[in-house]
Design brief:
The complex is a heterodimer of chains A (208) and B (220).
Chain A lengths: L3 H19 L2 H18 L9 H21 L16 H22 L3 H12 L4 H8 L3 H19 L40 H4 L5
Helix pairs in contact in A: 1-2, 1-3, 2-3, 4-7, 5-7, 6-7
Chain B lengths: L9 H10 L6 H21 L4 E6 L6 E5 L4 E5 L5 H11 L4 E3 L5 H11 L17 H9 L9 E2 H7 L6 H9 L12 E2 L12 H19 L1
Parallel strand pairs in B: 1-4, 5-6
Antiparallel strand pairs in B: 1-2, 2-3
């Protein structure tokens, strides 16, 4: 096997993204370390044809789920925002605003049903294919594809919210039907999904 | 494998990357460096690492340092291609390879001291597993050549108990897995020219120049 370090270098960012999407920053760092510690042990015996990135993401997701489950049994610690630095009032206010907005998106992601959350994080953030997501979550290819679309639809409120305050983030209103993995079709009346670059509009120019 | 799946929504991906504060750049690099350092320290505690490595700058270019739980196992020059050396070390020693500044701190300090002229002998534990047989015998005799002095290949062959194995001594020195620390640079041709060296003849001349200058300075 090649030096394990090269794996850390190649996939460290992707694993951090998955951990940060699912967990608070400190927990995310711990999950990142645990992922690579576990991967390090398994590395020499790993089949050489394995998809290393998908394998690491699988481990990271499992570590994150462990933390989430453990957290569920304990009282939530108070979230505190990182120090904005000595930049002065105005920029720190802007910093808070950005942070709150990002926070709203991540909270919305975390509150998605598991299937949609996996699809959004593993497919749209980590860049794995639907097939890879299906393999690593044990769901069907079709269900993963559907969940990815449903997840993004459910996030639309928060994704489009860039100009607003962000102090009272609205959680995505979930479309009718329990989750995206129940076999209902992806076509929803309130969320027409043309393949056109529909969402390019609110993205640019939203920053002050 | 690193290609993003074709139907990833780029705008959504961008927003998620932004929200997780993982845009490529110096901030992310610094954080990943921190995490890698922590990972190496944690793995060292558990004992699941075959090789730690780091680099140190030196007058003969960036030096790669590799150590095992036994000791320093490999020193490599830039001209050897550090990536290729790490590949080889992973094959020979083990693939659980991690970068760590801290685990090799002591080695880096001694190397620094050596090039600053404040150290003549290394107090490092060596892992000699990458040299065997006659090469190992030769390399173990090299620290007998004092700092600032040289010996010919023929003299080293005699000291190693095989006076006629001059060529083999040349090969043993030219493939020393621990150059600089095990002073194969002090073995030169009988006509006084430096001779083959893993880091190139120029690097050998730099090391000999440094040592002769400093030992001459100490004598006067």
């Amino acid at each position: 096997m090649p030096p394990f370090d090269r794996v850390v270098e190649l996939h460290g960012t992707t694993v951090l993204r998955v951990c940060r999407a699912l967990l608070e920053p400190t927990d995310a760092d711990d999950a990142w370390s645990e992922t690579f510690l576990a991967a390090l042990v398994a590395w020499p015996d790993l089949p050489s044809d394995v998809n290393v990135e998908a394998w690491l993401v699988t481990v990271a997701r499992r570590k994150a789920l462990d933390v989430i489950r453990a957290r569920g049994r304990r009282p939530q610690p108070v979230e505190h925002l990182p120090e904005p630095g000595a930049d002065g009032e105005s920029s720190s206010a802007a910093f808070d605003e950005v942070l709150a907005r990002d926070d709203a998106l991540l909270r919305a992601v975390r509150s998605l049903p598991e299937g949609q959350r996996d699809a959004v994080v593993l497919h749209h953030l980590a860049g794995l294919s639907h097939l890879e997501v299906a393999e690593l979550t044990g769901r069907s290819h079709a269900a993963c594809r559907r969940s990815a679309a449903d997840g993004v639809a459910a996030l639309r409120n928060v994704l489009g919210e860039r100009d607003e305050k962000g102090s009272t983030p609205t959680l995505p209103t979930r479309p009718t039907g329990p989750t995206g993995s129940t076999g209902s079709t992806a076509i929803r009346p309130e969320a027409p999904r043309p393949e056109a670059p529909r969402r390019t509009r609110p993205r640019e120019g939203a920053r002050p | 494998m690193n290609d993003t799946a074709p139907d990833v929504d780029a705008a959504v991906q961008h927003r998620l990357v932004e929200a997780t504060d993982t845009e490529p750049g110096p901030g992310l690099d610094a954080h990943l460096d921190l995490l890698r350092g922590r990972l190496a320290d944690q793995a060292a505690v558990v004992g699941t690492v075959d090789v730690f490595w780091r680099t140190v700058p030196s007058p003969v270019g960036l030096l790669l340092l590799c150590s095992t739980d036994v000791g320093l196992v490999r020193v490599a020059f830039e001209v050897e291609d550090h990536d290729a050396v790490l590949d080889r070390v992973a094959e020979q020693v083990g693939s659980r390879v991690l970068r760590s500044g801290r685990q090799l701190d002591e080695v880096a300090v001694e190397i620094d001291q050596y090039f600053a002229g404040r150290r003549r002998d290394f107090d490092l534990v060596l892992d000699r597993r990458l040299s065997r047989g006659f090469q190992r015998t030769v390399l173990e005799h090299l620290p007998e050549i004092p700092y600032g002095e040289t010996a010919s290949y023929a003299r080293v062959a005699t000291a190693s108990g095989s006076p006629r194995a001059v060529r083999a001594v040349g090969t043993a020195c030219a493939t020393n897995p621990l150059p600089v620390v095990v002073p194969c640079h002090r073995v030169v041709r009988s006509d006084g020219t430096p001779g083959r060296y893993r880091g190139g003849e120029a690097a050998k001349a730099v090391l000999l120049g440094l040592e002769s200058q400093l030992s001459a300075g100490a004598r006067s």
